[in-house]
Write a structure and sequence with these properties.
The protein has about 260 residues and is α+β, with helices and mostly antiparallel strands. It has one domain (about 5-255): Beta-lactamase (3-Layer(aba) Sandwich), CATH 3.40.710.10. Helices cover about 40% and strands about 20% of the residues. It is built from eight helices and eight strands. The protein has a six-stranded antiparallel β-sheet, sandwiched between helices. The chain has a two-stranded antiparallel sheet with strand order 3-4. Helix 2 crosses helix 4. The protein starts with a helix and ends with a helix. About 45% of the residues are buried.
Length: about 260
């Protein structure tokens, strides 16, 4: 991808009207920041984008074995979930449908000591997996509007290491995690990989949304993180909005290359 196309991609994304002062868009290529808009240094709860880190831990530890195993079944004791997030789930469907209870099975199988050790090894955000004060829920809630926080800049740096096989986990963990993050084929042989995230802010006063990932065509890759927050309660997830902002602009970009 030449520099003109990269800059056009960036301008399309950062021109989104929903990107407010409290939001951020950042993109990197070849290991360097290409462009950023908004506050990209402040840390926020990763919400379900943390499934990327859970996947790496799961495959490295052997809890997860391949793209379709293990399968875990939903239980009523897990709480209220929409039907699409119930039933039998495997790693691919867990990531696709963003199934929180599947994440919690993995982290509980890891246990506190191993879970905390992984977070430190991969240098994930503020590395605080204590959870809500006094609730002893770090293994199941720390990344859901709680103690664990990461900035958009740190998100793209983390993804860069994932793409470069430079995280302290196995080659298998890198490879399968990348595979299950596939979202869709874009025009002109581009591929989109990524993960949404939606939850309340740590102070519970704002609804947040993430979409982090990368686009790839042959050896060309651009890694991005889109973060937004809103004090109003939306009728749809913040993650969905963050994703649609990025996807819409990506589609505009790929059309220009046909």
């Amino acid at each position: 991808m030449n520099s003109k196309n990269i800059l056009f991609f960036i301008m399309l994304l950062i021109s989104s009207p929903a990107l407010a002062d409290s939001g951020c868009f950042v993109a990197i290529g070849n290991g360097k920041i290409i462009e950023q808009a908004g506050d990209c240094k402040t840390r926020h709860s990763p919400c379900s984008t943390f499934k990327i880190a859970i996947s790496l831990m799961g495959y490295d530890s052997g809890i997860l074995t391949d793209e379709t195993n293990p399968e875990f079944s939903f239980k009523a004791e897990y709480g209220e979930y929409p039907e699409i997030r119930q039933g039998l789930k495997n790693p691919t469907s867990w990531m696709k449908y963003s199934v929180v209870w599947y994440s919690q099975i993995i982290t509980q199988k890891l246990g506190k000591k191993k879970f905390s050790s992984y977070i430190k090894k991969i240098n994930y955000g503020n590395q605080n997996v204590s959870g809500d004060e006094g609730k002893n829920n770090g293994l199941t809630e720390s990344w859901l509007g709680s103690s664990l926080q990461i900035s958009p800049e740190e998100q793209v740096q983390f993804l860069q290491k994932l793409l470069d096989d430079k995280l302290p986990v196995s080659a298998k963990a890198h490879e399968i995690t990348r595979n299950i993050l596939f979202v869709e084929e874009l025009p002109d042989n581009w591929k989109l990989y990524g993960k949404t995230g939606s939850c309340d802010s740590k102070d519970k006063n704002k609804q947040t949304g993430w979409f982090v990932g990368w686009i790839q065509k042959e050896k060309h890759k651009i890694i991005f993180a889109n973060y937004l927050e809103d004090e109003e309660r939306l009728d749809y997830s913040g993650g969905k909005l963050a994703k649609e902002q990025v996807r819409k602009k990506l589609m505009e970009l790929t059309k220009t290359k046909n």
